[in-house]
Amino acid sequence: MIPVISVDFMELNFQTLAPMIVALLGALVIICIDLANKHLDKSLYIMLTVVFLSIDLVLVYGFSGAVRGFFDIMLVDGISILAQLTLLILSIAFVLLAFGKQKLQEYRYPEYFALYLFAVAGFQFMVSSDSLIMIFVGLETASIAIYTMVAMHNRMKTIEAAIKYFTMGALATAFFTFGAMIFYAVTGTVELGKVSEILVTSDFNNYALILMGITFMLGALGFKLSLVPFHSWVPDVYEGSTAAFAGFLAIVPKIAAFVVVLRIFEIFVSAEDIYVQTALYIIAVVTMTMGNLMALSQTDIKRMLAFSSISHAGFVLCAILIGTTQATTGIFLYWILFAIANLGAFGILWINRNKNASVNGQSPNSIHAYAGLVKKSPLLAAIMAMFMLSLAGVPPFSVFWGKLYLIGAAVNADHLSFNMYLALIMALNSAIAVYYYVKPVVFMFFKEGTEVKDEVILSNSTTMLQTLLGVFAILSIASIFLVEPLIEFISYYVQISGY
Question: What distances in angstroms separate CA 50 from CA 85, 92, 106, 492, one per listed residue?
């Protein structure tokens, strides 16, 4: 006789799924509207995306249900809420960049905004579960949407970038699957909480097999975080994408990936597994250093920001390696402050986008295109210089406070000699970064500009873009007043999660 399974829908706690459902519903609404009328203006789809993301944000911030939901697959703890709030606010900011003047870009396709919402929902699934299966579903939902969005830019460089991104992404997906399969073979479960409990109880039995699973996970998540040596796709994909979408790729997907890395590797860091700690240490140091060294030789600002984002990812990986509550708080503090400056820097490139302009045959993203900018637009030159100095970690701008907090977390942690060396390496890499971030500033203020037929400056400017850049410029300058409230806000959610 077949047993009857009774499910109480009230106990499923659908509140944990409500934010993702809103994002997915928004994507379907956009697709249906487009099917009904093909001639609506893109501004409608931008506003619909903002509306659904805002509803999503309210549901996340107002969440008050049980932590577990939907057959215990969902895990909406403090880290999940914090990560969702961060990625939703930034997603709203990045989609507003679609209000550009030029119409020859992927934003004219309603499908772009549907895919955008699918990607955000995927990231939310990733941070709202400790089940490797659900994390995989979220990862693939977001990845497939992003592969398509990159290709929609419809240029030869873009097609090449999309193929590279898809091919390496498929390999990373296979790595994640193999890693999850090994963890399941060793522990009999795919829930990270139970995986941790079983591994600790068994004193990490079958350690060689566990190390193999960790290696696969490092490969998969290293690709998503653009850690060295899994970084080779980054400069091509960023260069092939619009500046607005490249900025999105540099920030939002990595928030979700860092939460997954935190949940997986916290098991081994807290157990003081020397092999895992050494591997993370080497990857963090090499990623910081190589990202900076590769950025030094770049003359294309977008490629320079791509390589620098690699270095920043290595910086944040140090916080996971340190493993303290202060370090976990530092992950979110650093990434929020970095996002402010990074959105501003990519926003400057986007506001100056010109399909036809070139400077001596070079891309308008070339550093030479900004030579003598102070004479053409002193205010724009000052704002861009501020964003560059902020990314370099120069006080009193935003990223400086994030770096200071993370270096402080390394100094205050246990194993003083181990973490002191890490803090010293972080400080040295911050010094290296100053050189290539200051280079565009030197060109803007101290180099003579070249007269071009098609003006680069402000060719994609609108009131919305200028307002958005102004807001982030103010936030970057006023970050000294934001740090304390941000630390208190982040610490509250980190502590209730037990990290």
Answer: 14, 6, 17, 27
